[in-house]
Amino acid sequence: MSHQNNGQCEGCLQIFQKYPGFYQPLQDWFFGIQARFPTFHISCAGRGQIDQEACFAKHASNAHWGQSAHNVNAAIDTFFMIDGQYRLDRNLFDNVMQNLDSMLSWYGAIGCEYFELPHIEMKNWKQLYSSGILKLVE
Length: 138
What we know:
Elements: H1 10-16, H2 24-36, E1 40-44, H3 49-57, E2 75-82, E3 85-87, H4 90-97, E4 104-106, E5 119-122, H5 125-130
Antiparallel strand pairs: 1-2, 2-3, 2-5, 4-5
């Protein structure tokens, strides 16, 4: 299913469902924002070992499997779809990120750990993982 700018994108929902157990507060935040900004979508949510190592090999990630919030279903990569085109426009992101929840980190923000415009993750994903709330996805 392709992405739809209707505020309730089935394509985004399917990405969240690829790996069971996606962290519900992040998913809820995303769909709340998408209802307000229907052109805002996700390109990636969870990543299993094969997906993560493929991203690392093509330099789309700095992390091996087990080192990324994606691997515990606690991160999303996002984009905008404008006139059928995928866009990573700084102004669009700045608009949406004014609504960033305090539990989240956006790697497009000034002073972020490393710059990755579309990446949003739970700030405390490592603690959630070590306490057993989040689990590695296969």
